[in-house]
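Hi there,

I know you've been waiting on this one. I reran it after we fixed the sequence typo, so this is the corrected version. Both the input and the resulting structure follow.
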Amino acid sequence: MQRKMLGDTIYRLRKEKGMSQAQLGEAVGVSNKAVSKWETYEANPDIGLLPLLAKTLGVTIDELLTDVKIEKGDPQPKDARVFGVPGTTLETPEAYEFVSDKKTAKGLPYLHIHVGKRASTINAKARGVIAIGNNAKGIVSVGLLSVGVVSLGVLSVGALALGTLALGLVAAGSFAFGALALGSIAIGVMAFGSVAIGHTAFGSVAVGYFAHTSPSGEAFGRHVFIHYR
């Protein structure tokens, strides 16, 4: 139902603007076939295209998605620059969002910021090459829940993960799980922490095949090493 409604809204707004499918596609960087699929309910626009699509059709993102006319005085998308990157921003009492104009070949914005301000928008999703938000996913991601090659967040998952709970090849956090783990509680092939568990473990309490600790610590393993200063 939502896909059908969005397709109908795009069709209506395009016709009101007097634009062909080819003209709309060219304006937002897709083919006329892609526009046709939107309008015939075969597909939805990529989320990263919504700010530019709404701007081209002369509406807000909310109006595009809900087909409800936004009254004068309500927040409107605005051109902006964040970290020197040009794009479109929309700020409401519920959330702040910025989407860069520049996108990858698949329509993914190079920078997407989406921060929810209330409990109802706590799961605000950011998807981009660089993603910053409550729920962030990108090559570089920063958020409460963060997934990426390099990720920073309360819950962080990535090749390099930094967070309260971090999971990655290299993980650092209060609770860290990874090939190389550093944290208050660290579990990994090589682990450094107050409590360290791994093949090679360094900690106040160290458990591993090779367990390293200080004279005041505890070590459990096949090979135990006590390090004196």
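Quick highlight: The first strand starts at residue 78 and ends at 82.

Best,
R. S.
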